[in-house]
Amino acid sequence: MTIYSAVLFIHVVSALGLFIALAAEGAIFFRIRTSQSLEEAKFFIRAFQRLRIIAVPSFLGILVGGLYLAPKWGRGTFWIPFALGATLLIMLIGGLATGMRVARLKTVLSSTENDVSIEAIATKTKDSALLISYGLRAGLGLGIVFLMTAKPELLGSLGALAAGCAAGFLGAAWIRRVSNRVGMVDCVWRQTRRLKAGQKARFEEARS
Fold this sequence. Notes:
mainly alpha; 86% helix
């Protein structure tokens, strides 16, 4: 096995790791938005932070591998700098936008009393900026995969990244819509349970 083959293998595996991390992140954000208690929200915040074990090595593998493989393709190849730039953009958005907001959300949840209802801090757990950041990064990742496989020219590279971002935003909008529906159903269900419990308590009190 040559060095080129080994680096290419690490590069591809890192890309797979990136998408695994993004898929897990989307599922975690969905569960945070539909959490029924503070403890459940805290659990998934901790799960999100553990994604660094996958995400950080994957980013390094993609970036370092891309820098090594780029000269092998020669000059005049437009998709390579676009792919590397998109990778750096994913890292920046993930660290600055998502990472900082999740850290603030963790601080808010940690400082909130456990007897406070999850509805009281719904604006924090359902922060739309987290989904926007996620959709943008997922879309850029999708565009990077297209660039790696199709190797288009300038306009094709720009179009691929733009189309990927559009697809990512649509996915984020779908997560928001579905999670809001689930949250409404859970809220109605909990209110119904409280009403039934209250009626049962009044009935028992009347009997006694």
